[in-house]
Write a sequence for this structure.
């Protein structure tokens, strides 16, 4: 059984005029110990997807329909109390900006200990020992001293380590990391990424990495989902997606990497920008920016189809596959 | 810490000098004390002689100098009416006012905090909406109307609590006349402290609500939710502590308003405190007493704000008083 399976998830944002769709028919699965990445530009719905897994989409967002199953437990139907048992204990989250994630007026130690004690009945002393052990685990020097310090006494990288320690406290099955390295220094990014990867690998924790950085993704994730305007447009093994992107959007993203351009040349970019929720184009949402767009793309929403080891939602690929199939039939 | 206190002390000295100049300067603008002290029959020559004796004919600066020399030694002049050192007269009335203010602050903290928190957590709840309406009315209705209404309802119509005086008091440590330890004293304290609290309550309810709503939007609260903490823990530990930081600061500033309102409250409820004394002193043109009152209140204000800064430093770990000496 899949550890986590999301199927046909629709998430809306409630506004006075109308309901705006932030996620449209999103489905994916996650196996125990697997590491997947969700990539896309800002506004694609990556973070909304991450947060909706534990039903933490801030108001006015809400899950309209669909199902999110942790093993056989349906998360979308749970009340707050039941969700609180899942949050932190089975599914833990790492946020984007470590400077904002820790409460500034509570000591590091308190913030760690309270997490443990909210889920398990153990003494303060035992909880403290676990917390210090985890701080040690994320390579924080002199954890006993850090334990009594406040967040502002630590650097950004250190704070992200503390946050990683805090999600490890209860040995969760899944870690959802929402751009965990975006707010950090480049040198520290690599360290934190290494740490996260090692921790997931060593403890068999499944990881959902939300990122816009394909470089980061390629180092960590086994499988990648590419999102555009609330849809998953391509899904497949990370290597496959990087080496042989099918969807024009994925191709554009990869093309836009600075490594794809010679020094001195203008960087490649995808023309235009991500549409806002309120002005989603008809048909395939990517068509205004797509160099291959046809009349069909403007009118109809492409289905998700299998293409080799990946799945893609694009008429271009679909038509090509159909052509191949016809040729095959003719040949036979 | 020591540096902080020393700096504060120096600041306080400047503030006190300025307050003393202002409060002294208004002395001869209030009216003629001699007029109040002697009858109609006294001749102008005798009046002038009395003025000379009181030093009222000297120049402003020599008068101020005389006053300041005394003030440094703790002598803020002698009341024309009581014929006693003004400081003694005021300190005599201080406990009554402090008890009134203390009870009002207690009521504000105990009522405004849960109300503000509720209004922030459940902004759409009918109670929160009601609270917001009542608090905007409270902001705009003057305290003396509230106080008079309370006297009318609770003392006259319902006969639940007395409307004037302190009632039975007991002596604590031989120097503090307290109404906190007798049933009668507490009964007398009820209406005045309640009206004083009501005057300041709306501001705090609204402030706590606004700050709390902002804090609840922050990333660390979202992170706390993602850790699976319970709602009470998130609201009352994670959010409230951050909410209180600006509230503490405003609270210190509001101490000045509180003092101003004690004058009104004490007058309405005939509360034998400093504010009531001050009103009497103004009416009697007892200028030394008026100046002394202003200086004592200034002192209280300075002390309160120093305490507030210390408390702020305790609550907010990012403020390290010792190292910055701010």
């Amino acid at each position: 059984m899949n550890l986590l399976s999301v199927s046909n998830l629709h998430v809306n944002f409630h506004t006075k005029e109308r309901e705006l769709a932030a996620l449209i028919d999103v489905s994916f699965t996650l196996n125990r110990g697997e590491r997947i990445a969700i990539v896309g530009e800002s506004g694609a719905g990556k973070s909304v997807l991450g947060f909706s897994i534990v039903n933490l989409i801030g108001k006015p967002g809400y899950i309209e329909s669909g199902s999110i199953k942790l093993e056989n437990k349906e998360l979308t139907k749970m009340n707050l109390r039941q969700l609180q048992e899942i949050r932190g204990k089975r599914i833990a989250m790492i946020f984007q900006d470590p400077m904002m994630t820790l409460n500034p007026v509570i000591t590091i130690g308190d913030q760690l200990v309270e997490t443990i004690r909210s889920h398990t009945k153990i003494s303060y002393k035992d909880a403290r020992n676990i917390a210090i052990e985890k701080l040690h685990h994320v390579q924080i020097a002199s954890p006993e001293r850090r334990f009594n310090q406040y967040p502002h006494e630590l650097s950004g990288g250190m704070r992200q380590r503390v946050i990683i320690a805090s999600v490890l406290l209860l040995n969760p099955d899944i870690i959802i990391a929402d751009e965990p390295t975006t707010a950090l220094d480049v040198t520290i990014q690599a360290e934190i990424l290494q740490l996260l990867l090692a921790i997931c690998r060593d403890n068999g924790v499944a990881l959902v990495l939300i990122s816009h950085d394909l470089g980061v993704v390629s180092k960590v994730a086994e499988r990648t989902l590419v999102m555009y305007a609330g849809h998953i447009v391509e899904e497949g093994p990370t290597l496959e997606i990087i080496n042989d992107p099918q969807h024009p959007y994925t191709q554009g993203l990869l093309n836009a990497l600075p490594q794809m351009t010679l020094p001195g040349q203008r960087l490649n970019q995808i023309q235009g920008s991500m549409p806002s929720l309120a002005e989603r184009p008809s048909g395939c949402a990517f068509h205004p920016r797509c160099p291959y767009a046809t009349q069909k793309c403007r009118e109809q929403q492409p289905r998700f189809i299998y293409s080799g080891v990946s799945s893609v939602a694009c008429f271009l690929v679909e038509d090509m596959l159909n052509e191949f199939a016809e040729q095959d039939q003719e040949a036979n | 810490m020591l540096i902080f206190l020393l700096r504060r002390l120096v600041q306080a000295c400047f503030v006190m000098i300025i307050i003393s100049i202002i409060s002294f300067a208004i002395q001869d603008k209030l009216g003629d004390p001699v007029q109040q002290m002697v009858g109609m029959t006294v001749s102008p020559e005798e009046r002038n002689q009395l003025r000379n004796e009181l030093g009222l004919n000297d120049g402003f600066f020599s008068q101020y100098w005389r006053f300041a020399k005394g003030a440094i030694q703790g002598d803020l002049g002698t009341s024309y009416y009581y014929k006693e050192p003004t400081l003694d007269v005021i300190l005599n009335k201080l406990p009554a006012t402090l008890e009134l203010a203390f009870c009002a602050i207690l009521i504000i903290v105990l009522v405004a905090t849960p109300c503000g928190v509720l209004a922030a957590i459940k902004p759409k709840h009918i109670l929160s909406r009601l609270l917001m309406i009542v608090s905007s009315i409270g902001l705009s209705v003057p305290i003396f109307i509230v106080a008079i209404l309370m006297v009318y309802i609770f003392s006259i119509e319902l006969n639940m609590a007395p409307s004037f005086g302190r009632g039975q008091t007991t002596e604590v440590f031989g120097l503090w006349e307290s109404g906190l330890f007798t049933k009668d004293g507490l009964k007398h304290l009820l209406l005045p402290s309640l009206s004083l609290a009501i005057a300041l309550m709306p501001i705090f309810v609204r402030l706590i609500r606004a700050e709390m709503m902002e804090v609840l939007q922050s990333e660390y609260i979202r992170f706390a939710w993602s850790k699976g903490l319970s709602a009470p823990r998130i609201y009352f530990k994670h959010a409230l502590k951050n909410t209180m930081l600006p509230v503490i600061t405003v609270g210190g500033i509001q101490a000045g308003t509180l003092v101003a309102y004690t004058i009104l409250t004490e007058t309405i409820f005939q509360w034998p405190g400093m504010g009531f004394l001050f009103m009497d002193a103004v009416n009697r043109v007892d200028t030394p007493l008026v100046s002394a009152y202003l200086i004592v209140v200034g002192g209280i204000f300075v002390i309160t704000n120093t305490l507030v800064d210390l408390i702020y430093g305790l609550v907010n770990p990012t403020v390290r008083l010792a190292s910055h000496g701010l």
In short: The two ends of chain A are 39 Å apart (CA to CA).
